[in-house]
């Protein structure tokens, strides 16, 4: 199963592709899409969509996972994040991929064991899990999102849960329960 993880943002949209094979995870590629700040928002969103489509076509994932929006106190920044997320979701949907959503807290807890992990802790765990140095923090987050997909059972698309003795399924249920608190 090849999975693309997306960490949307208008300034930087991180992406990471991993492959799960024989209960192991392998790094395929990662990077970020950073449209020029000189472009107006519509052009930046179009660039995110178009670049993500090229990445999807190049790496041919079977499944996509995108970070859920966390709405903070800044309404303008939340709106811009939502626009970048929408552009990313259009690219994923046009490629025929199911779009699964994970919260930041769930991803952090899955990858580091701590739901409030720092960016540095995420990068460190990605380096250890994949034996690579991610291109940047945005791609590191996207790789973490992709890796976290193994602890979900969206639409029964992810078969690794059924290949174990039920431990992965129990972990997934516990993490989702914790995420909903």
Q: Helix share of residues?
A: 40-55%
- Cα distance, first to last residue? 30 Å
Query: pLDDT below 50 for ≥5 consecutive residues: which ranges?
Result: 154-165
| Strand percentage | 15-25%
Mean pLDDT: 87
Largest sheet features: 5 strands, mixed
Would you count the extended β strands for me? 5
Strand order of the largest sheet: 3-2-1-4-5
C-alpha geometry: globular
H/E series:
EEEHEHEHHHH
What kind of assembly state do the chains in view correspond to? single chain
User: Which structural class fits the helix and strand makeup?
Assistant: alpha/beta
Tally of separate helices: 6
Radius of gyration: 16 Å
Task: Give an overview of the whole structure.
47% of the residues lie in helices and 19% in strands. It is globular, with a radius of gyration of 16 Å. Helix 3 (104-112) crosses helix 5 (137-148) and helix 3 packs across helix 6 (167-179). It has 181 residues and is of the alpha/beta class. The model is unreliable at 154-165 (pLDDT under 50).
Helix/strand layout:
Elements lengths: L1 E6 L5 E9 L2 E10 L7 H19 L3 E5 L7 H20 L4 E4 L1 H9 L6 H12 L6 H12 L18 H13 L2
Parallel strand pairs: 1-4, 4-5
Antiparallel strand pairs: 1-2, 2-3
Question: How would you sum up this structure in a few lines?
Answer:
It is built from six helices and five strands.
Keywords for this structure?
single chain, 181 residues, alpha/beta, five-stranded mixed beta sheet, 6 helices, 47% helix
